[in-house]
Amino acid sequence: MLFSLSTCRWPEGITFISPEPDVCSNSERLMLLSYKMAKVGDLKVGSYAIIDGEPSQIVSIQKSKPGKHGSAKFRCTAISLFDESKRSFVSPVGANIQIPIVEKRVGQIISVGPSSVQLMDLESYEVFDITPPVDEAIRSKLETGRDVEYWNIMGRYKIHRVKG
């Protein structure tokens, strides 16, 4: 069976190959390369990691010293970026972990509803719906016509702050 491979270039210089000829659109590129790999021992408080399949921000770290026959352990507590639930994990320091790629963008609010906010990206003029933020301080500032900074993380959107 023959099929053609298409090569696409990511802005940071990463190249990937796909059997789909038209996979180079921005949304599909984000789904294919929505994370990068790093060592668990390199994580710091405030950095991001994918824990239990959910992008999370690390809030506390504990490192134990290696024992006579073992390796150092890494204990971490993190808060999910989307539902603000607490997550934790324990891993050897030398293990790999997925780090989500956070694309920070600016959009304008088109409409605000009880269960969704409609945004227009100010670069691509794409219009899409986002669930309102959990944080009440941000939620109270949402008004039609205001600019917001939103994050695209693993194909999911989050309003991070209201500008102005």
Q: Can you walk through the features of this model?
A:
The protein has 164 residues and is mainly beta. It folds into 2 domains: 35-100, Roll (SH3 type barrels); 102-162, OB fold (Dihydrolipoamide Acetyltransferase, E2P). The protein is 7% helix and 49% strand. It is built from 2 helices and 13 strands, in the order E-E-H-E-E-E-E-E-E-E-E-E-H-E-E. The strands form 4 sheets. Strands 11-10-9-12-13 form a 5-stranded antiparallel beta sheet, with no helix packed on it. It has a 4-stranded antiparallel beta sheet with strand order 4-5-6-7, with no helix packed on it. Strand 1 and strand 2 form a beta hairpin. It is elongated. The model is unreliable at 1-7 and 9-19 (pLDDT under 50).
From the N-terminal CA to the C-terminal CA, the straight-line distance is 56 Å
Helical segment count: 2
Low-confidence stretches: 1-7, 9-19
Shape label: elongated
> How much helicity do the residues have?
under 10%
Return the average pLDDT rounded to an integer: 83
Strand order of the largest sheet: 11-10-9-12-13
The SSE order reads EEHEEEEEEEEEHEE
Care to count the β-strands? 13
Name of the top-level CATH class of the largest domain: Mainly Beta
β content, as a range?
A: over 45%
Number of domains: 2
Radius of gyration: 19 Å
CATH architecture of the largest domain: Roll
Structural class: mainly beta
CATH topology type of the largest domain: SH3 type barrels
The main pleated sheet reads as: 5 strands, antiparallel
